[in-house]
């Protein structure tokens, strides 16, 4: 059973057109050439010199705005319209989008109002503070200005008067230089910009006093400060060369001065600036190395001087320009570490971080080779320098990641963001960083990973996460709120993305499977099947992830406005990830708890999920298959997963007719069920759940919500449930449901099929009267449409009469044959168009046979083969006419029917199993009715046309005997010759061959034509002697008889010798008689060698008879004519004495015969004749008693008795034929 492939397109689009909201975007500056860094001057102040001059800070590069977002993002994009969406769906989508945009506008307006209120409050607070301190500050500034002006005047007057005083003049000059510096700077800053004529203060007086001091008093203790002030003022007034000369002088004259490091730095700046001008085409000389040397000298003084950080910063840049990236990175690291160690920090720290990140983000540090990107570019390079665990490394990594993103190197940016998140788990900015990370993944085509990362945001920032605990401890509620917001959107987006991706994978898997089914090459099929399996496995994995995310979303946001949407997504994802039990539970909840738009889909999902669980249970042998649809049961049986014993009977019949499955097992099972009534089975829980799920669909009338393009399902589910109850034998439930289908939708195919099952329930209950009744009732409902209605009407009528047919059969089985015959005939009379009317007539005939009403049976059988001669049963019926003709002594009809069956050229007659038997039976009937001529002809024909029959030789021999009965020796002789020609050499027919010779010998023997008879008897003896063991006792019998008859011929010749005539003649006759008796006795003694009881007795008797005959001849002899009376008396007396001796010998043989008979309980012709002979010889000793005058026991010498004594078919019970109720 396949997974459910249906999915509502409207649901898919509606569910996710509004979910793809979380696509975090960063707005990065895409400037390829960042501005060169300008040195941000730090204020410098010494304890004794007053404020040091300050440089204006150069503009630093603009940091990326990590929070920059479009106003509404994808919310303002039109929601894609789903395919085939109706107007209502489109309207819903538009309304949904409008509501979303209104919500965004309202939230934005609220935030603006809140910001305005906060800023207004802030401004008010500042004004209140200014109001308190502004007056005091103004007074202090005014006082300072007055005092400075007064000091300058006083000192200048002093200098006018005492300018040559070497003790005080140097100090005054230095103080005036500093005061004029402050005065010029203050005037410049406080002046109206529109009145200024130059871009810097006028430090000319300060320069003048400093220069005078240096010229006049070079050994002034603070001369180094004067040099530095002079150089600084010159530098501020764009007198760069003069300033550089001043700083060079300071370095040379005062190498140990505290101002020297700063002077070195200023000299480095001079060369740095000139080198910049040169590479920009303004100057002609690049002196990076010179600048680097001065910066390095300055740094060597250590971190205690004022602009140490500036020296480090510039040193790093000169190393950069010299392409010494390694040193540059280390210098920037030193600068940041320095800034973090000193209380005041450094204004260059951020720039160092940014430029360090920028340098690390450059792909090619070695411009001399041909490789565009260094092998260690990326986090490998970053970790080489910044992996010690210091806090500032996180700042560099953040800027580094942003820089890579700005430069559109999103794959490396994603790697950097990932590392940043891993290094600082508790950073409150992590949610924003995660947004940047996800965007970089998306833009680098790592969408699957982006979705995976998004899907984990709730775990990373949820209440149980380490990050959440950190923020909660630090009170970062705003960060928590923000994280929750993006996590929710991320979960929604991840669910959407995973669900869409899983659907696309499923489609791809199905396409691969379809291609595999149509592929011709086995290799291609295997490849596509493997592709399907792999893709489907991936789809299951993605669906599983979708389900996990959706479950988490519902647990975290149980009151979300789209909770039922997400519940449906959860159910569908569970279903498609083959978690059917869980999906069914969720589908049930959606279906039962809300009357929303997902109710119908959830109801169908529940049915499908539970159906698959049932199917799996059947496959695993845990549940019987009766709850499955019919085709699934047949499929499982074909695969061997289900035994025939559990398959419903009607499905077994279908399998049998289709030739599918183990046909022997099917036939055996059907035979075993024949006559059994159905038993109600308990319905397994798995099956009942499917039934209940289908019932729920109808209970909620969910067909009313189906799209117009979809077929209704309530009838399908009602029908499947009815069928399931039918399978389990719960016929009341089944009939109720089938009945609803019939009553509510009589025109549908479901109604038509339901009608059949309703009838089946009554049939299986054995209520055939109800089958007939319900068939009439269903006919009145006019089920189906068009021609189908008429066809069904005919079928229902057939079912009615088939039921009555079955009722008749049951009467027959109950041996109520008369009633059965009546019902069968009634079917034929009431419904002449009944498809099986011929069977009804035939079975009525069978029933009449059972009660020996053969004439009635013949009448009905004749109707079958005359009125329905195109039916297979016509041949059977014709045969039964013959059988019943025999029984009714209508032999003529019997013979005619048998011969018509045999001689017909119709295929059904030619194929009839009793066709050959019919010819034989016709011949035998003719034999018994003494129509020997026809009998013999049919027997001979039987032999000739059906020589393959085992009894064909016997029938040919029987034809010979018929000719014998007719006295037609010519045909007998001819037929015997025909028989011997074909079978004489066959040992199986040795007895028949010997019999044929005996019969022919007997024929001539009876005519006393011993000459013609003798050769036949001799042939018998010769043939037998060739193989005495062939033919058994019957051959022995025939050979003994032939041997006896040959001896008897000698006896007959011998007995003709008369004792009379002259003395000479008498003596000659006696001698001949005596000599002949020895020959005859010898002939009869040959018979004894056969040891055949009958012919042994015959031979002994005949020997005794020979002696008896000899004695009688002597007793009856007359004296020769020449003898006188005395001589005659003496002659006769001597003859009598000889006769007595012969009688004694005769008596011995007679007694031997009688004793042999008594010993072997044999009474026959020879015992009787022997007794007669004994009675004649010794009447007193052997009187004749009535009991010993028993008729001769007949032992035929013909093998006619060998003719196969097959029981007449007329004596066998024939069974009625059944109507196939399955077909009805």
Give the helices and strands, then pairings:
Elements lengths: L8 H9 L27 E2 L3 E2 L35 H76 L6 H22 L13 H13 L6 H14 L3 H14 L6 H20 L8 H13 L7 H14 L3 H17 L7 H12 L18 H7 L5 H16 L3 H14 L6 H14 L3 H9 L1 H5 L4 H9 L2 H42 L3 H35 L6 H14 L3 H14 L5 H21 L10 H9 L10 H10 L4 H11 L11 H15 L14 H14 L3 H14 L4 H16 L3 H13 L6 H27 L3 H14 L6 H14 L3 H14 L5 H15 L3 H13 L3 H4 L4 H14 L3 H14 L6 H15 L2 H15 L6 H17 L3 H17 L5 H24 L7 H26 L4 H23 L9 H35 L5 H13 L47
List keywords for this structure.
1224 residues; mainly alpha; Serine Threonine Protein Phosphatase 5, Tetratricopeptide repeat; two-stranded antiparallel ribbon; 49 helices; 69% helix; elongated
Rg estimate, integer Å: 67 Å
SS-based class: mainly alpha
Number of H/I helices: 49
Q: What ranges have pLDDT less than 50 throughout 5 or more consecutive residues?
A: 2-77, 79-83, 1187-1210
- Determine the N-to-C terminus distance: 30 Å
Give the mean pLDDT.
85
Strand order of the largest sheet: 1-2
What fraction of the residues are assigned to beta strands by DSSP? under 5%
What composes the largest sheet? Answer: 2 strands, antiparallel
Helix content: 55-70%
Oligomer: single chain
Overall body shape: elongated
Would you count the extended β strands for me?
2
């Amino acid at each position: 059973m396949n997974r459910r492939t249906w999915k509502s397109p409207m649901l898919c689009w509606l569910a996710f057109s509004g979910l793809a909201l979380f696509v975090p975007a960063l707005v990065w500056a895409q400037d390829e050439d960042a501005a060169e860094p300008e040195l941000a001057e730090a204020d410098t102040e010494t304890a004794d010199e007053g404020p040091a001059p300050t440089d204006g800070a150069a503009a630093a590069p603009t940091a990326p705005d990590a929070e920059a977002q479009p106003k509404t993002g994808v919310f303002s994009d039109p929601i894609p319209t789903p395919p085939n969406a109706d107007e209502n769906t489109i309207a819903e989508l538009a309304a949904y989008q409008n509501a979303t945009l209104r919500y965004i506008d309202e939230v934005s307006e609220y935030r603006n109002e809140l910001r305005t209120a906060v800023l207004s409050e802030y401004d008010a607070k500042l004004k209140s503070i200014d109001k308190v301190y502004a007056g005091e500050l103004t007074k202090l500034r005014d006082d300072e200005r007055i005092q400075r002006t007064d000091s300058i005047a006083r000192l200048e007057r002093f200098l006018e008067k005492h300018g040559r005083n070497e003790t005080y003049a140097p100090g005054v000059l230095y103080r005036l230089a500093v005061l004029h510096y402050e005065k010029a700077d203050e005037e410049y800053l406080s002046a109206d910009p529109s009145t200024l004529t130059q871009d810097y203060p006028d430090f000319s007086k300060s320069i003048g006093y400093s220069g005078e001091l240096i010229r006049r008093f070079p050994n002034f203790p603070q001369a180094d400060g004067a040099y530095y002030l002079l150089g600084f003022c010159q530098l501020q007034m764009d007198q760069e060369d003069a300033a550089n000369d001043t700083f060079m002088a300071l370095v040379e004259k005062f190498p140990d001065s505290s101002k020297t490091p700063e002077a070195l730095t200023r000299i480095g700046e001079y060369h740095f600036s000139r080198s910049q001008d040169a590479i920009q085409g303004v100057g002609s000389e690049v002196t990076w190395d010179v600048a680097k040397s001065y910066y390095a000298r300055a740094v060597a003084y250590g971190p205690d001087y004022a602009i140490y950080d500036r020296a480090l910063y510039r040193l790093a840049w000169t190393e950069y320009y010299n392409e010494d990236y390694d040193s540059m990175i280390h210098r920037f690291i030193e600068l940041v570490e320095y800034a973090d160690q000193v209380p005041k920090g450094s204004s260059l720290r951020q720039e160092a971080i940014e430029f360090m990140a920028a340098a690390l983000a450059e792909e090619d540090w070695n411009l001399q080779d041909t490789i565009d990107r260094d092998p260690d570019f990326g986090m490998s390079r970053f970790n080489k320098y910044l992996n010690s665990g210091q806090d500032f490394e996180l700042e560099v990594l953040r800027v580094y990641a942003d820089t890579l993103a700005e430069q559109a190197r999103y794959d490396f940016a994603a790697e950097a963001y990932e590392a940043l998140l891993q290094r600082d788990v508790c950073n409150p900015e992590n949610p924003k960083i995660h947004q940047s990370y996800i965007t970089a993944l998306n833009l680098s085509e790592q969408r699957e990973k982006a979705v995976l990362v998004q899907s984990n945001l709730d775990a990373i920032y949820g209440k149980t996460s380490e990050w959440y605990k950190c923020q909660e401890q630090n009170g970062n509620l705003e960060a928590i709120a923000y994280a929750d917001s993006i996590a929710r959107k991320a979960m929604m987006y991840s669910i959407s993305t995973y669900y869409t991706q899983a659907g696309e994978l499923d489609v791809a898997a199905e396409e691969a499977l379809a291609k595999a089914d149509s592929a011709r090459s086995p290799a291609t099929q295997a490849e596509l099947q493997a592709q399907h399996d792999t893709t489907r496995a991936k789809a299951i994995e993605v669906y599983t992830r979708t389900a996990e995310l959706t479950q988490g979303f519902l647990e975290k946001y149980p009151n979300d406005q789209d909770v039922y949407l997400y519940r449906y997504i959860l159910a569908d994802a569970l279903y498609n990830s083959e978690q059917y039990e869980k999906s069914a539970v969720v589908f049930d909840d959606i279906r039962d708890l809300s009357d929303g738009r997902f109710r119908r889909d959830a109801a169908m999902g529940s049915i499908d999920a539970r159906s698959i669980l049932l199917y799996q249970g059947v496959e695993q042998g845990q549940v019987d298959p009766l709850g499955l649809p019919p085709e699934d049961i047949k499929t499982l049986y074909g695969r061997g997963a289900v035994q025939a014993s559990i398959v419903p009977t009607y499905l077994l019949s279908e399998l049998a007719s289709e030739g599918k499955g183990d046909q022997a097992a099917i036939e055996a099972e059907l035979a075993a069920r024949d006559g059994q009534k159905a038993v109600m089975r308990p319905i397994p829980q798995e099956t009942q759940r499917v039934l209940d799920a289908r019932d729920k669909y109808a209970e909620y009338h969910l067909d009313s919500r189906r799209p117009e393009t979809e077929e209704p399902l309530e009838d399908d589910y009602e029908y499947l449930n009815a069928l399931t109850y039918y399978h389990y034998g719960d016929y009341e439930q089944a009939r109720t449901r089938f009945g609803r289908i019939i009553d509510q939708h009589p025109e549908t195919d479901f109604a038509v099929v339901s009608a059949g099952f309703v009838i089946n329930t009554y049939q299986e209950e054995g209520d055939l009267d109800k089958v007939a009744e319900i068939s009439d009732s269903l006919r009145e409902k006019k089920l189906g449409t068009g021609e189908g209605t008429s066809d069904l009407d005919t079928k229902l009528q057939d079912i009615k009469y088939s039921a009555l047919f079955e009722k008749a059969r049951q009467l027959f089985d109950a041996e109520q044959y008369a009633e059965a015959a009546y019902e069968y005939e009634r079917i034929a009379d009431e419904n002449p168009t009944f498809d099986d009317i011929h069977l009804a007539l035939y079975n009525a005939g069978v029933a009449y046979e059972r009660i020996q009403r053969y004439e009635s049976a013949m009448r009905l059988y004749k109707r079958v083969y005359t009125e329905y001669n195109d039916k297979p049963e016509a041949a059977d019926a014709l045969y039964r006419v013959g059988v019943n003709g025999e029984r009714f002594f209508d032999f003529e009809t019997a013979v005619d029917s048998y011969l018509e069956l045999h001689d017909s050229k119709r295929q059904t007659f030619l194929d009839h199993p009793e066709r050959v038997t019919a010819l034989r039976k016709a011949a035998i009937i003719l034999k018994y009715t003494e129509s020997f001529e026809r009998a013999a002809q049919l027997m001979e024909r039987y032999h000739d046309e059906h020589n393959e029959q085992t009894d064909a030789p016997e029938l040919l021999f029987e034809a010979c005997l018929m000719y014998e009965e007719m006295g037609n020796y010519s045909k007998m002789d001819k037929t015997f010759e025909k028989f011997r020609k074909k079978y004489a050499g066959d040992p199986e027919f040795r007895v028949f061959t010997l019999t044929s010779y005996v019969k022919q010998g007997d024929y001539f023997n009876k005519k006393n034509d011993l000459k013609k008879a003798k050769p036949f008897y001799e042939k018998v003896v010769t043939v037998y002697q060739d193989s005495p063991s062939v033919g058994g006792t019957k051959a022995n019998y025939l050979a003994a008889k032939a041997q006896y008859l040959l001896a008897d011929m000698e006896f007959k010749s011998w007995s003709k010798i008369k004792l009379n005539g002259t003395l000479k003649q008498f003596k000659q006759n006696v001698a001949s008689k005596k000599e002949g008796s020895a020959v005859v006795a010898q002939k009869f003694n040959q018979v004894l060698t056969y040891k055949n009881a009958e012919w042994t007795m015959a031979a002994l008797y005949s020997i005794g008879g020979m002696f008896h005959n000899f004695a009688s001849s002597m007793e009856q002899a007359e004296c020769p004519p020449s003898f006188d009376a005395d001589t005659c008396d003496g002659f006769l007396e001597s003859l009598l004495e000889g006769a007595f001796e012969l009688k004694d010998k005769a008596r011995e043989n007679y007694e031997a015969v009688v004793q042999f008979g008594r010993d072997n309980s044999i009474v026959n012709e020879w015992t009787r004749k022997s007794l007669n002979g004994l009675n004649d010889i010794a009447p007193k000793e052997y009187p004749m008693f009535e009991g010993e005058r028993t008729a001769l026991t007949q032992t035929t010498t013909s093998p006619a008795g060998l003719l196969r004594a097959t029981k007449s078919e007329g004596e066998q019970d024939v069974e009625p034929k059944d109507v196939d109720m399955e077909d009805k």
